[in-house]
């Protein structure tokens, strides 16, 4: 039996401490899971518990003093919960953290990638954010914002939304994308066009 690897990129947002729920759902669906945290995300998660649950180290940096190993590629990437900051940076090509590097390379390799945001209505209404969502969707990323995904909440009510965070929708999106489109390397000789 072939195992599929799901890379979950966790940002510093309210639902992050519950990412173990997503890991359990993914394991039930037959995924091997690895966790990558943004620097802010590290403060929200229980690293030791997630490492025990996934059987792999939680990564948040490049570890420059360790020899590089060639790891197999992820079969899918899910950024959840994804913050306003991470979504905007990723769309603009800013690659200043290990987590953003993992996400950017996955998109460039056409690895099935989904984003499950956690943003309030005021942030979601900003044009930079709306442009970022549109740009990422134009690159083939599934951004689960709106019906069937995450519905932005009024400012100051984020804590009330945590229990309803739709982890299952994020997993369903990568499941659907990974069975429909295998990851491929872009052909440098062929011009790339958005889907």
Keywords:
disordered C terminus, 9 helices, globular, 39% helix, 195 residues
Describe the 3D structure.
With 195 residues, the protein is α/β, with parallel strands linked by helices. The protein is built from 9 helices and 5 strands. Helix 1 packs parallel to helix 3 (47-54) and helix 4 packs across helix 7. The chain is globular. The chain starts with a strand and ends in a 15-residue tail after the last helix. 38% of the residues are buried.
Helix-strand blueprint:
Layout: E1 4-10, H1 19-28, E2 31-37, H2 39-42, H3 47-54, E3 76-82, H4 84-92, H5 98-108, E4 113-117, H6 121-124, H7 127-138, E5 142-143, H8 158-161, H9 167-180
Parallel strand pairs: 1-2, 1-3, 3-4, 4-5
Gist?
It is built from nine helices and five strands, in the order E-H-E-H-H-E-H-H-E-H-H-E-H-H.
What is the H/E string? EHEHHEHHEHHEHH
- Low-confidence segments: 183-195
- Helical amount among residues, as a percent range? 25-40%
Intertermini distance: 31 Å
Strand content: 5-15%
Assembly state of the chains shown: single chain
Number of helices: 9
Would you tell me the structural class of the helices and strands? alpha/beta
> How much is the radius of gyration in Å?
16 Å
Largest sheet: 5 strands, parallel
Average residue pLDDT: 89
Q: Strand tally, please? A: 5
Give the neighbour order of strands across the main sheet.
Answer: 2-1-3-4-5
Shape: globular
């Amino acid at each position: 039996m072939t195992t599929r690897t799901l890379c979950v990129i966790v940002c510093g947002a309210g639902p992050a401490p519950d990412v173990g729920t997503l890991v359990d759902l993914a394991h039930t669906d037959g995924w091997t899971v690895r966790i990558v945290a943004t620097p802010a995300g590290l403060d929200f998660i229980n690293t030791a518990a997630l490492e025990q649950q996934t059987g792999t180290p939680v990564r948040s940096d490049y570890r420059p003093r360790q020899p590089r190993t060639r790891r197999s590629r992820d079969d899918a990437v899910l950024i959840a919960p994804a913050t306003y900051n991470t979504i905007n940076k990723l769309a603009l090509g800013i690659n200043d953290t290990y987590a953003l590097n993992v996400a950017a390379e996955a998109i460039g390799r056409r690895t099935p990638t989904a984003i499950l945001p956690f943003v309030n209505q005021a942030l979601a209404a900003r044009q930079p954010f709306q442009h970022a969502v549109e740009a990422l969707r134009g690159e083939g990323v599934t951004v689960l914002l709106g019906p069937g995904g995450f519905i932005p909440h009024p400012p100051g009510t984020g804590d009330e939304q945590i229990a309803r965070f739709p982890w299952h929708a994020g997993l369903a999106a990568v499941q659907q994308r990974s069975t429909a489109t295998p990851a491929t390397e872009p052909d440098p000789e062929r011009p790339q066009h958005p889907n």
